Structures
1.
Amino acid sequence: MSELPKKVIICAALAGAATMKNQNPAVPYTPKEFAEEAAKCYKAGAAMVHVHARTDDGWPTHEIDRIKATHDAIKDKTPELIVNLSSAVGMGKTAEQRIAQIVAIKPAMASLNTNTMNFGLVDRKTGQVVIDFVFENTFTMLQNFGKAMEENGVKPEIECYDMGGLDNTLLINKQGIFSEPMNFNFVWSVAGGQNFRPESFVAMYNALPAGANFTTCGVGIEQYPAITMSCLMGGHMRVGLEDNVRTPNGELAKGSYEQVEWAVKIAAGLGREPATPAEARKTMGIKQK
C-alpha cells in the first residue's frame, strides 16, 4: 500500500433512526438541535454530517418538509458542512417515500443501501431479538435510487454491510450508473450484517474498484477499532450517536462532536489530519452545495 493520504474525511452521524434520548440525551430530534450539534461537530473537525431527521418526539420520519427543515437548519448555521441525508427513513417505508425526499431536497450526498438483509436489535449478551425486520434493498431499488441521485446531482454514499453489497453495486454499475469517484461506506456490526474483523476489512478494501474512496463505521464498541483500521488503510472515518452512544472509556458521549474529537486524535496518531469540507468535496467528487 502506498503512503497514507494526509487528509482524512470525518463524518458525524448525528442520530440514526433508532438511537433515542433515553440512551443518550444528546441525540438531536428538532431541526434546531440538529443544527447545533452539527456546528459542534464541524468545529471539532468533521467535514460532513449524516442525517436521519426526526419528529419532535424522536420518531424517524419520511416527511419531506421536516427533513428539509432539518437539512436547511444545518446549512443555515454551518454552510460549509456537507449534509448527507439518509435514504433509509425508518421501518416500513416504501421505496417511493425513501427516494422522494432525496429528489426534492437534493442534498450534496445521500446514503444508498445495497442489499436486502435482516436488520434489527439483538441483545449482544443474550442473543435475544428485540427488534426484527427485513431491510429491503432490491436490485431495482439500488438501480433506481442510484440513477435518481446521480440525475439530481446528489453523490451516492454506497453502504456495504458485507461483501455482497459491494458486489451488487459493481454488478449494477455495468449500466454506467455511478459517476467517479465512487464513494463506499463499510458498515460493521449491525445485527444482520457482518461483524467487524480486520481480515474482512482487507477483503472489502481489495474488492474496491480503482479510484474509489472508502470510509467506515462500526456499531457500539466496534466503532473505534473500525475507524482506526479505516484510517490506517488510507480511508475515512464515521462516528456519531447513530452508531454508538459512548466514548472509548465507556462513558456516555457528550454529543457526536466528542466522538469527532476522538477520531481526530486517532488520525493524528497515524499522521493524518481532518479534511475541510472543501477538501472533502474535491476528494469525493461532490458538487458545491
Note: Residues 35 and 73 are 5 Å apart (CA to CA).
2.
Amino acid sequence: MEKLIITAAICGAEVTKKQNVNIPYTIDEISKEAKSAYDAGASIIHLHVREDDGSPTQSADRFQKCISAIKEKCKDVVLQVSTGGAAGMTDEERLEPVNLKPEMATLDCGTINFGEEEIFINKEKSIKHFAEKMLELNIKPEIEVFDKGMVDTALRLYKSGFLIDPLHFNFVMGLKGGISASLRDLAFMAGSIPYGSTYTVTGIGRYQFPIAAIAIAEGAHVRVGFEDNLYVEKGRLADSNGQLVEKAVRISRELGREIASPDEARKILRL
C-alpha cells in the first residue's frame, strides 16, 4: 500500500486559546507547533496564520514571516496555505498568500452553513478565479469538499480546464452542515472522484481518529490537528499538534502502513 501522507492543520482560523491554551497565535508559537507536527511524522503543514491576539489574517506579510520561521525548523516540509481565511473575508483577501507561490494551496469548492448565522460562501465564479490563479502560479490545489455536490463542482471545473491532472481532494467529514463522518459516506465520496486522483480525509472533532483509521486502512491520506480537533482522546485536551500526529502514526503502524516523508509526499502528489 502507498505510504501515508499526514497533513497537520496546526491552528485554523476559528479555534482559540480559551478552548485549548496550546492553540498557536504568534509566529514563534506557529513555527513551534509546525515543528512538533513535523517531528511526529507530518509531511504537510496546512497553514492559517493569526495576529498575536489570535485574530485570523490572510496578510501575505504575516504568512511570509510564519513560512520563513517554519522553514528554519522544518526545511523540507510541504507548506499548504489556506485560502479559506475566515468567514466574511473578501476573495482578494483570501487569495493574498498564494502570491508567495507555495507548493500547495486550498481550493474550497462550495458554500456551507457552519452554524446558525455563519455561512462560508464560495461562489462558482470565485472558485474559478481561485483555480485560475493557482494554475497561473503553478500551485497544486487541494480541492476542499464538505459534501458530494462540491465534488461535482470540482469535476465541472476539471472538465472546463480550470483544474488539471492529477487531482487531489480533501474530504472534510463530520462538520455541521456537511457530510457525515461515516464509512458509507467516505466510500460514496471516494467513489465519486476520477481514477488516479489522490485524497486526504479530515474528521472533525470526535470523528478525527475513527474516520482516520478507516481512511488509513483504505489507502487514503489523513489530516489531523488543532484546526479540526482539540482532543487527543475523550475528555483530554491535546498538548500539541505533534501529539495528534503521533496518534495517527500509531494507528497507521498498527495497520501496517508506513509514513511518507515530505519528499515522498511530493512524489505521491506529483508536486
Note: The two ends are 20 Å apart (CA to CA).
3.
Amino acid sequence: MQHLLRKQIILVVAFVGITLAALSQTDEVFQPNHDELPYYLGMSMGMSNSFLSFKRGSNFLDNSSGKVSLIQPTQTFYLNLGLTGTLKLKEHILLRANPTLLISGSREAFTFKNSNYLTDKSYTIPSVIVDLPIAFKIQSDRYNAFRFTDIMRHYVLAGVKLGMDLGSEKSATVGRTTTTNLLKGTDFAYELGFGVSYYLRYATISPEIKFSYGFRDLNKSSTATPPTSTNLSLSNIDKITSNFVYFTLHIEN
C-alpha cells in the first residue's frame, strides 16, 4: 500500500506541476489575501489503508476453548470522502476539522488458526467508518515555485481522531460461518501528517499523507466472560489497536 501511495503522490504532484507550468501568466499572485481569512471550508477525497496490531498475551499458546494459536492482520482499503473546515489561530497555526466517510463494503480484519479451524481462516466484518479528526496545522510561509510567485507552502499537522465503524454491531463471517463480531466499533487515535498546498486562481489544492495510530483496545474478548463466540475467542490477545495510512486531496476555497 505504501508503494501505491507513493505513486499516487507523485502523480498528483506531477499533474499540478504540469498545470502550473502550462499557465501563461507567471507574474500573477493567486489568492493574495488568503492568509487574511479567519476561516475557510472545503472538501476532501482520497484513499486509505487500514490494518490491526495485536499484542499477544502470556497465555497465547494456550489453544483451548477456541482461542487463536495463529493470528495475522490483513490490509483493508477504503475510499475516503469528507468535508474540511480550517480556523486560523495565529499566522502559521491553524485548527482543522475533517469529518470523513470511509467506504469499503467489507473488511477482512485478520486471518487466524485455532483448534476449531485447523487451516487458516479469514475474519471478515462489514465496515463503513465515520472519522471525526481534529488537528493543529502548522504551515510555512508561501514561496515561489514553477516560475510563479507565492504559489506553494508546506505544512505538518498533529491531532486526535474519533472513529466509529457503523458495521460493528453486525455479525462477522469466518469462512462461510456467521459469528459474533469480536471487535469494538468505536476507536480513538493519534494522528500525524504532512502535505503541500498549491494556491491556484480559484482554489487551493493540497495533497496530504497522514498516519493514524489507535490507542483504544478494540478486543471485546479481553473483557467478555464467557467468550463472545463459541467458535472463536480472542481472550488470549491482550490488546488490538488500529492503524491507518491516508492519502488525501484537499480542495479548499
Note: Residues 2-252 form a domain with the Porin fold (CATH 2.40.160.20).
4.
Amino acid sequence: MEKLIITAAICGAEVTKEHNPNVPYTVEECVREAKLAYEAGASIIHLHVREDDGTPTQDKDRFKAVMDAIHKECPDVIIQPSTGGAVGMSNDERLQPTELNPEMATLDCGTLNFGGDEIFENTENTIKYFGEKMIERGIKPELEVFDKSMIDMALRLHKKGYIQSPMHFDFVMGVNGGISGTLRDFSFLRGSIPADATYTVAGIGRYEFPLAVAAIIDGGHVRVGFEDNTMIAKGKMAESNGELVEKVVRLANELGREIANPAEAREILGLKQK
C-alpha cells in the first residue's frame, strides 16, 4: 500500500478566530501553522489566504507573500493554493494564485448550496476554463468534489481533454448542501473514480477523523486542518493544525500505514517540484 499523504488545510476562507483563536490570518500566523503541520507529518499545505483582519482574498501578491514565507521555513513542502475564493468572485480573480505556477491547485467540479442564499457557483464553462489554465500552466489539479455528480462532471471533462490523467480527487464530505460524511457515501464516491486515480478525503467537523480512518485503511489519503474542523475531540478545541496532523499520524501508525514525506508525495501524485 502507498504511503499516506497528509494535507493540512490550515485556514480556509470561512472559519474565523471566533471559532478558534489559533486560526491564522497574517503571514506570520500562516507560517506558524504551516510549519507545525509540516513538522507533524503533512507534506501538502492547502492554502487560502486572508488579509490581516481575516477577510478572504485571492490577491496574487498576498498568496506570493505567504507561499514564499512558508517555503523559507519548509523548503520542500507542497503548497496547494485554493482557487475556490469566496462567493461572488470572478473566474480570473479566483485563478490569480495559479499565475504563481504552483505544483498543484484545487479545481472545484460543481456548484453547491452552502446555506441560506450563499451559492458556490462553478458552471461547466468555469470548470473547463480552470482546467485549460491549469494544463497551460503545468499545474496538477486536485479535483474537489462535494457530491457524486461532480465526479461525473470531472470524468466527462476528462474525456473532452480539459482534465488530464492520472486524476487526483478530494472528497469533501459533510458540507451543507453536499454529500454526507457517512461511510456509505465514502464507499459510493470511492467506487466512482477511475482505477488509476488517487484521492484524498476531507471530512468536515465530526466526520474528519472517522473518514480519515476509512481512507487510511482503504489506501487513500487524508486532509485535516482548521478549514474543515477546529476541534481535536468532542468539546476540546485544537491548539494548532499540527495537533490535528499528529492525530492522523497516530491513527496511521496504529493501522500500519507509513507517512509520505513531500518527495514521496510528489512521486505518488506525479509532481515535479518547480
Note: The chain has a mean pLDDT of 96.
